[in-house]
Amino acid sequence: MIHQPENLKYTREHEWLSMDGLTAYVGLTSYAAEQLGDIVHIDLPQPQDEFAKEESFGTVESVKSVSDAYMPVTAKILLINDKLAENPGMINEDPYGDGWIIQIEIKDPAEVENLMSFEQYQTYLSEEH
Amino acid sequence: MSENTVYQKSKKGRMGYSFDTYEVDHMTSTDFLPENLVRKTEARLPELSEFDVVRHYTRLSKKNYSIDTHFYPLGSCTMKYNPRINEETAAQKGFSQTHPMQYQYTVQGNLCLIYELGEALKQITGMDGVSLQPCAGAHGELTGLLMIRACLTDRGNPRKKIITPDSAHGTNPASAAMCGYGIVSIKTGEDGFIDPAEVQRVMNEDCAGIMITNPSTLGIFEKNIKKIADIVHAKGGLVYMDGANLNAVVGQISMADLGVDCLHINLHKTFSTPHGGGGPGAGPVVVNNVLEPYLPVPVISKDKYGRYFADYNREKTIGRMRVFLGNFAILVRAYTYIRELGLDGIKKVSKMAVLNANYIRARLKDHYQLKYDSPSLHEVVFSDATLKGTNVKTIDVAKRIIDYGFHPPTVYFPIIVPGAIMIEPTETESKETIDDFCDAMIKIAAEIKNNPEKIIRAPETTCISRLDEVKAVKEPVLRERF
Amino acid sequence: MRYIPHTPQDIKDMLKTIGLDSVDDLFKSIPSELKLKADLKVPPPLAEVELKQLMAEMAERNINLTEGINFIGAGAYYHYVPSVIAALIQRGEFLTAYTPYQPEVSQGTLQSIFEFQTMMSELTGMEVANASHYDLSTACAEALMMAQRINSKKKALVARSLHPQYREVIKTYFQNQNLNIIEIPFAKNGAIDLDFIYDNLDDDVSAVMVQSPNFFGVVEDMIAVGKKVKEKPALFINVTAESLAYSVLTSPGEAGADIAVGEGMSLGLGPNYGGPYLGIFATQQKYIRSMPGRLVGQTTDKNGERGYVLTFATREQHIRREKATSNICTNQSLCALMCSIYLSLMGPEGLKKLALLNMHRLRRLEELIKIKNSAALTFNAPKFNETVIELTVPAKEAVIHLLKDRIFSGVDLATYYPELDKHLLVCTTEMVSGLDVEVFVEKLARYL
After folding, report:
1. Is residue B9 part of a domain?
2. Within an 8 Å CB–CB cutoff, is residue A83 touching chain B?
3. Residue B68 forms part of a structural domain
4. What does the mean pLDDT of chain C come to?
5. Predicted ipTM of the assembly
6. Which of A80, B242, C129, C371 could bond to C120 as cystine, CB 3.0-4.6 Å?
7. Could you read off the pLDDT of C298-316 as tens digits, one per residue?
8. Residue C376, beta-bridge partner list
9. Residue B257 belongs to some domain of the structure
10. A129 in contact with chain C, both atoms CB, cutoff 8 A
11. B237 — alpha (psi -120 to 50), left (phi > 0) or beta?
C-alpha cells in the first residue's frame, strides 16, 4: 500500500492522513522522518483508544530525541502498524507506504477539511525553514 | 584499537587478592545455609592476578581524556583543576575508616566538618539553613522542591505547576515531575533574559513558583531576577535557584539578596571535587528561613557544650533524602578546598573564571556567531549560524576539536540555541592554554569553508573513530556475552 | 592562589583583547544593588602545611575503626579494601574525567562501566544492569517508581525488615505520589512473614520489596517470595544491602526478581562515614525502557572496531525532561570502577571464600553467645554475617560501655524498632578475627 503524497492531507506537526470514507491511515511525512534521523523506537496506543484532535497518541524516538506524534483529527484507533515494533526504521525507509503508523476512524469529517493540502504543506515547509 | 575486556583476559584459577582462608577451606555454602537459600549458578567474575588487574585498568585509563591531561571547556560543567591535597585529606584513616552508625561522640571530627562546611556554604550564599545529604545536583533539586511543596502544603495549597524557562537543564522539569508538579515552560526573551512580564503572565495561584538558573545556561546574569522573585512571592510562590553556575558569581553576590528561597550547589563544580567519569558528586541545598524548618533530617547541629549532633527532632522535615549523612568523602574534599582558598581565593575564582570566558568570547566572536549578544559571565554560547550552507554540523566541529588535543565543549545545549557550542574555561586554565584552544577554533572555522570533509571525518587521532549509536540501540549489547 | 595561573600581565593583556579596563567591569551585567556590600565571613586562606595540619586534627577527633574492633554493619559493611584500588582510581585519567558523553575520548570510562554492568548482571543473575545509582536507599525508591511506571498500580508491599533508613527515603520520595505503602511484618524467627504477603497480595499491588539478607542479617527464602509474587501482576523487587552475599545466596534472577537493587559499598569502597556508596540497579531486558539511570552499550565504529557508547539516552532527563524515567543525571562512575577492580581481584573463588569466612565468624559469635548465656539470640532463622542479640540492658548503654575498650559493638535497634528496645545488631566481617569475637562476647557478658 503506497499513499501518493500529492493526495494526502497534512498537519503542522508533520503527520499525513489518507482518507477513505470514515477510515484513514496516518503516518509521518518524509520531512519529519528526515529531521528525526534514524528512528529506533516507537510507542503506540492500543486499538479502540480514542484521541482528540492534536492530542499526542504516541512517541517516536531516534537515538537522541523523542517526538510526540499528534492525532490529525479526533478519532478512534482501529489498527496499529505492528511491524513498526520490530522495525521502526520503516518510517525512514518508506514513510508513505509500509511506514504508516495507525489506521483510525474519523469522528468528524469536517476536521479533515482544515488540514493542509500537499501544496499548502510544501508552502508551509518552505516558510517554516 | 580496542582493548580486550577484563573477562577476555581472565583465566581460570588466577586470583589477585590474598587472605587467610584455612578456616573455611573445606567448607561450602550448604555448611551454613539450607539448600533452598543457596545460589545454584555461580556468578561469572573475571579471574586475574593483581598485576593483570593493574595493567588492564591502567591501559583503560589511557583511553580517557581528563582534566589532568587535557583542557575541558565543557559549558555548564565547571571542569576546573581538582587539587591533590583534597584527595589526601579525604583519604585519611580518621575520616575514611569511620562508620556512619558509630556513636556520635566518637565521630565529632566528621560532624564538625559537616557543620563547618554547611556554615561556609550558608555564608557564601547568604542563606540560613543547609543540608549536605543530596548526592548530586539533581538530588538537590528534588530536595529543594520537596521542601517548597511541603511549605506550600502547610500554607494550605501545594499547587500544581512550576515555572521553568526553556533554557533550563533537563533535570529541572524531571525533578519537578518527581515532586508531582507539572511544568509551565516560558520562553527566553530575544535578548537572552527571562522577561518579568512573561513570569507575571503565567504566575498564578496554581503555580508553586519558579526554577531559575542564575547565571543562566546562556552564561548570562538574569538581571531581573529580583523583580521575578518579587512577582513570584507576591502570588504566594517560592523561588528555586539552580546553582549549577555558581562559579561565575561566588564571592560577588548573595543569593538571599536575589530573592531566592532555595538553591543547590554542585560541589563537583564550584568546589573542585573530581568528576570521576560521571560521579560521585554532591549537591548540598541551602535555604532561607522560610524553608529552613523543612530541611531533611538529620540536620547537623551544635549543642550548648559545643558538641555536634545529628538532630532528628524536626517536626516539619520532609524526611530523609538518603541513607546516612551524605557523600562524606566528597564533603571533605570541598571543605579542604574552601579552607585553602579562603575569602580572597573565593573572590578570585569567579573573577578569573569570568575573565577567561570573556577572553574566549572576544577571540572567537568574529569566527562563530553568538545567538545572544548580552554580556557573558563564566561561559559563552555560540550557535551554528556560521555552519549554514555547509554540510558541517556542530557535532562535527566538536569532534574536530579533539584532533587539536582538546575535549569538545558542551554541544546542543541549551536547546534554545540552534546547534549550540557552549564553552566554559574555568579560572584554572592559563592564557596560553586558552590561546591554543582559540587558535584551534579559528583554524576549524577556516576548515569549515575550505576543507569540510576533514571535519566530517574527525576525529582521526583517537583510539576509535565515531561510533554507530543507532546500532547500539537497535541491537543492544549491554553486557558481555560469553 | 596556587590554583590560578594568571599573572598581572596576563590579566592586562586579556582585558585589552576584551576591551575593558578592569576585572570589575566584567561584572557590570550584575545590577549594582545586588552586589555584595560586606565581605563574606569565610576564614582566611591557609598554606598547604597549615591546611594539612587542620585537616589532620579534624580527622583525629574521630575514633576510627582501625583503632578498635568493629561489629557495626547495618548497611555499611566494613570489609578490607585492597591497596590496588586506591592506586588505580587516583589516576587522573579516571579521577578527573567527565561523564563520557564524547565516546571517542572516553573509552576507558565507558569500557569500565560496560564491564561493571556485566559483573553486576552476573552477581544479580539479571539480564541487564545499569551504570549505577547514588546508593541503595535512593535505588530502592527509584525501583518502586519504575514498577509503577510499568504497571500503574497504587499499592506496594515493603518489608519492615528493609533497612529502616531506606524505608524513610522511600517515604520521602513518595510523599507526593499516589502509592500506598504497606509494611510486611517479620515473623518470630526474623524472616519475612510470608503469610502476610499471601493475604495482602492482590491485583492492585505494584511491587513487593524484600531485602535479603534482611536488616537483621536473616537470609530470606526469596524463591518462595518470588513464586508467590509471580501469581499476580505485581513486580518483585529484590534488595541486597550486603552485596558480598550475592556470591552464596540465591541470586535475584534465580528468585524470579523483576528488579534487583543492591548496595555495592561492600565491594571495595570502604565505610567513608556513609558515602559515597554505590547503588546497583538491575532488571530484565523487557523493562529497559522503563529503567532509570545511565546505560553503556557496545557497538562498532566505522572501521568495525568494537567500542562503547552511552545508550538508550531517550529515557533520560536531558532528552525527555519532565517525562524522563528519573531526574538522575549521573552515576557513581568512580565507585563502580572501584567495585569492578575489587571483583576482578577477588574472582568468583575469592568472593565466595570471603563470604564463607564472614558466615563462619558469625557462627562463632552465635555459638559463644549461646554458651555465655548472658545475652540471647533474638532470631533463629539462617543468617549471613549479621545477627540481633537481646541484652539485659538498653543496647545504647552497652555500646557506650564497650567503647571504653575500643569495641564498636553494633547498632542499638531501639530507635528503629520500639519492640527491640534492648537489642543490638551485630555484624562480623573478615575484619574481626576469631579472637576478636571471643573478646567481644566476653566483655559483653562481663558487663551484663
Report:
1. no
2. no
3. no
4. 96
5. 0.97
6. C129
7. 999 999 999 999 999 988 8
8. C390
9. yes
10. no
11. beta
Q: Which chains touch B (3 or more CB pairs under 8 A)?
A: A, C
Residues on chain B touching C348 (C-beta within 8 angstroms): 42-45, 47
| Domains by residue range for chain C, with CATH | 67-81+348-447 (3.90.1150.10), 83-341 (3.40.640.10)
User: Taking each helix axis from N to C terminus, what angle separates B108-125 and C48-60, rounded to the nearest 10 degrees?
Assistant: 130
Q: In terms of residue numbers, what domain contains A26?
A: 5-128
Query: Average model confidence (pLDDT) for chain B?
Result: 96
Instruction: Please tell me whether residues B169 and B196 are part of one structural domain.
Output: yes
Tell whether B157 and B223 lie within a shared domain: yes
Same domain, B372 and B404: yes
Domain that holds residue B221: 85-339
CB B95 within 8 A of CB B110: yes
Three-state DSSP at C7 gives: coil
CB-based contact, B73 to chain C, within 8 Å: no
Same domain, B145 and B196: yes
Q: What is the pLDDT of residue B1?
A: 75
Nearest chain B CA: its distance from A102 CA (Å): 22
Q: Provide the chain A residues 87-116 that lie in CB contact (below 8 A) with chain B.
A: 89
Sheet holding C259-263, edge to edge: C128-129, C279-283, C259-263, C235-240, C205-211, C155-159, C180-184
Chain A residues close to C289, C-beta within 8 Å:
41
Total domains in the fold of chain A:
1
Contact C257, C240 (CB under 8 A): no
Q: Is the peptide bond before B100 cis (omega within 30 degrees of 0)?
A: no
Closest-CA distance of chain C to residue A4, Å:
32
- Structural domain count, chain B: 2
Whole-prediction pTM value?
A: 0.96
Burial class of residue C283, CB neighbours in 10 A (0-12, 13-18, 19+)? buried
Which of C286, C314, C317, C321 should we substitute to test contact with A (largest number of A Cβ atoms within 10 Å)?
Answer: C314
CB-CB neighbors (< 8 A) of C323 in chain A: 66
